[in-house]
Amino acid sequence: MSRLSARERRHQPVSPTLIRLLLDHAADRGSTHPYGQLLRCRSGEPITKRRYDHLWKRLSFVRNQNISTHWLRHTTLTWVERRFGCGTAHAYAGHFDSGDNATVTYIRASIHGVATALAALTSEPHSLARAQQPLMRAYPGARVQAGVARRVDAVTVKVHLLWAARSVGGEDLERQTAIVRQRYVGQSWMPIRS
Question: CB under 8 Å to 61, separation ≥6 — which residues?
Fold first, then answer.
């Protein structure tokens, strides 16, 4: 859960690796209060907004590439939107119905959709994520290059995929094919296990 203000809170899925690193940081820097500021200097003092600016200035390779916190956020949200849709990107960003776009009023993403996007982005499983496609489990970095879906019946589709990935041994796998069956359950498509 991330802290917004004294009265507002929202749930935000976080990768297991980030949780472990944040807990280690909290223990090392003396951040013990559950609602206190987590990120702290070596002295134990909470990090200020100026400290974030200073961290970016210290990383010359980052500065030379014009990378910023905003750029990282924009790039991540663009990736999520392209792969999981506008509703999931909107929820991933923590945006609420703000009237900035009429479409946003009608689309919603559950915390499970956000967790699924996070799991795909980090290649780490998440307990709230929807079941991953068999292809993504076997090749976590797989990219779908093309796909065609055909309806089998009212709630089932057969999807023909053209995909690429890198094998565990480091071999580039291009123009691979797969057939995935999915069933519409609740409000999302779920893979059918054969």
Answer: none
How many Å apart are CA 27 and CA 69, to the nearest integer? 25
In this structure, what are the phi and psi dihedrals at residue 189, rounded to the nearest 5 degrees?
-90, 130
Asked if 89 contacts 81 with a C-beta cutoff of 8 angstroms, the reply is yes
- CA pseudo-torsion sign 147, 150, 151, 157: negative
CA distance 74 to 66: 13
pTM attached to this predicted model: 0.58
In this predicted model, what pLDDT tens digit does every residue of 36-62 receive, in sequence order? 888 898 898 898 888 877 777 787 777
CA angle 104, 108, 113 (to 5 degrees): 130
Residues ≥6 apart with Cβ < 8 Å to 90: 104, 107, 109
